[in-house]
Amino acid sequence: MSDTTPNTSESAGIRRQFAGVDLQELAKRHGTPIYAYDASVIRQRCADLRDWDTVRFAQKACSNLAILDLVRREGVLVDAVSHGEIARAIAAGYSTKSPSEGQDNLPAADPIVYTADIFDHESLEAVVQHGIHVNCGSA
After folding, report:
1. Which residues contact 50 (CB under 8 A, 6 or more apart)?
2. Could you check whether the bond before residue 107 is cis, i.e. omega within 30 degrees of 0?
3. Within this chain, do residues 42 and 67 fall inside the same structural domain, yes or no?
4. pLDDT tens across 32-47, in order?
């Protein structure tokens, strides 16, 4: 009778690399748990949406500064729901002023839009200070 215990290095569903990077080496270098993103996939998803007039990234999905910077460089605008998200968008290189068409690889629209159902004092101060466009939700 043969041994049916799977060899994990050959088992289906066990991934050893991600975006060309060895996952064990990544874990050794940075520790675990770790989040890994494939920039080429993110760039492709941004490209898939380029035919739309305006594409906004809801940073509540992921407020990682490197990801925000990447989508900004791909021409994607950002949606913020708090003072902290406004600050992160600015830290990632988003301007608070509308660019000319094509400037900074962004469409001529408000780079940051504040969308919230609840308005706190700190967020409203940031909106006024930076002249950020507000999209009022309903609570």
Report:
1. 75
2. no
3. no
4. 998 889 999 999 999 9
Q: The domain containing residue 43 runs over which residues?
A: 16-48
pLDDT in tens, 80-131: 999 999 999 999 999 987 765 555 566 667 899 999 877 889 999 999 999 9
Crossing angle of helices 83-91 and 65-73, in 10° steps, is 60
In the chain, the number of structural domains is 2
8 is a domain residue = no
Ranges of H-type helices in the chain: 23-30, 39-48, 65-73, 83-91, 121-130
Amino acid identity of residue 115, one-letter, is T
Task: Note the pLDDT of residue 100.
Answer: 58
Using CA atoms, how far residue 30 sits from 41, 55, 56, 135, in Å, is: 22, 33, 31, 39
Q: Is residue 2 part of a domain?
A: no
Distance CA 16, CA 69 (A): 28
